[in-house]
What does this fold into?
Amino acid sequence: MHAFFDIHTHHPTGNPGVSEMENLRFGQTPSGKTQHYSAGLHPWFLEASELESAKKWLDQLAAMPHVLAIGEAGLDKVCNTDWALQEAAFRHCIQVAETMGKPLIIHCVRAFNEVILIKKQLKPVQPWIFHGFNKHPDTARMLLKEGCFLSFGAALLKPGNHSAEALQLTPDDRFFLETDDAAEIDIVDIYKKAALLRGVSLEQLKEVVAGNVRNVSRES
Ligand SMILES: [Zn+2]
It folds into this structure.
């Protein structure tokens, strides 16, 4: 029996049978409910005066074996954070992911082209996982064509959301599932909906996602 992997959560539950990757940003302490973390410089919470200390914090955490991924990190055109500061932090996270050999979990809002441009410049070898994917299938196709991974969450449960169609066109080896900041949503319900959308059994889906987690992480 495979676990239900929740690769990106801000509210781990500690529920048995669920393997959760808790996301940490600079200044946050772990909940203690899980053994696995991602750590990154989130574009919403950057302060120019703190960037150097935030980078040092990340460098230290990234080297720890229980930190399985770097992120969330990325670019967000809707938040108020200065663009140059966002890009500096994002580029640092990319470099840390490459140095440590860990996947990068990406927060991207209306900046898909900018993120992909950076990917083309830097040619990273680590997996880039666009988390909380809830966009149109065309955006999914573009990201998949660039070799990226997609992680789907609560949007799948919303009637009429484009992400259902996007999940259906995503190959078996390129997706993950997550609860993100939706504390009220159970990862098991996201798995159930995803299994329905992909026309597979819950057990088959668990096996596919577990295989993807194995492929992109050094541990587990
Ligand atoms: Zn998040």
